[in-house]
Amino acid sequence: MPYEKKSLGEKLRKLRESYNLSQKQVAEALNIDRSTYTYYEKDKTRPSLETLVKISRIFNVPTATLLPDDDGKQITFRDIARSDGLLITLSKEERGLIVYYRSLSTEDQAKVLAEMAKLAKKPQ
Fold first, then answer.
1. Using an 8 Å Cβ cutoff, are 65 and 55 in contact?
2. What is the pTM (predicted TM-score) of this model?
3. Residue 28 vs residues 22, 33, 35, 59, 98: alpha-carbon distances, Å
């Protein structure tokens, strides 16, 4: 049986129904209007990256499982960045640094920031 491509909205609806939740309940958990969540399920709008992460936590699924869009192609970092603001202006290396940084423990993140602050203050 071939893989059936589903839009983000279809995935959200199926997940919500599998948890036997109403759109209102999910919207309240996300702290958004029910109509906003309804637009996500109808593929009229896409949630921000922050909201997508919250949705993945509510339904206990990896965020990546929500990413294929309605035409079957993957949503790229560039697509997400457009919806979240200035991330699109970052270079590939800068985005890579963010990914590495986020994978660190809180303690290691603090060490990295302290070291970067030292390096930034050094004359070149």
1. no
2. 0.54
3. 10, 7, 11, 14, 30
